[in-house]
Design goal:
This protein has 125 residues and is mostly beta strands. It has strands spanning 2-12, 18-30, 39-41, 47-55, 61-64, 70-83, 88-91, 96-100, 107-123. The protein starts with a strand and ends with a strand.
């Protein structure tokens, strides 16, 4: 086992409140594409689709649950997100967010300083 990757997780508790937490994803050294040297890979996760996601400048929503389990990876700009309890995080280029708050009060989001671009991977149930 090699170093782990950190990812922010957004989830809803039993009362419907949303929360952020940092989770560690285990990685293992694997020769993924021989004859290339080994590199670190996580266990595979099933996915249904991926799509590009652009936040236009000035866009903001106070509260919405995630429409599905999805992995959000920011490619350009910055996005501020907040939980139903008011915890706020700013996501920058390269940040990863595992969105699992598919029920409850949801979360809010807005781009900071202009538009932002992300790729979103819809995870299989």
């Amino acid at each position: 086992m090699t170093e782990m990757v950190t990812c922010t997780r957004l989830y809803a508790d039993e009362a419907g409140e949303s929360h952020f937490e940092d989770v560690k994803i285990p990685m293992s050294s694997v020769q993924y594409a021989p004859p290339a040297p080994a590199l670190d890979i996580s266990a595979p996760q099933e996915a249904d689709a991926y799509f590009w996601f652009r936040f236009p400048q000035g866009w903001e929503d106070a509260a919405h649950p995630s429409p599905r389990r999805q992995l959000f990876v920011l490619l350009e700009g910055q996005v501020e997100g907040w939980t139903s309890l008011g915890e706020t995080r700013v996501f920058s280029v390269g940040d990863r967010l595992l969105m699992e708050d598919t029920s409850g009060k949801g979360h809010g989001a807005r781009p900071i300083g202009g538009e932002a671009l992300a790729v979103v991977i819809a995870l299989a149930d």
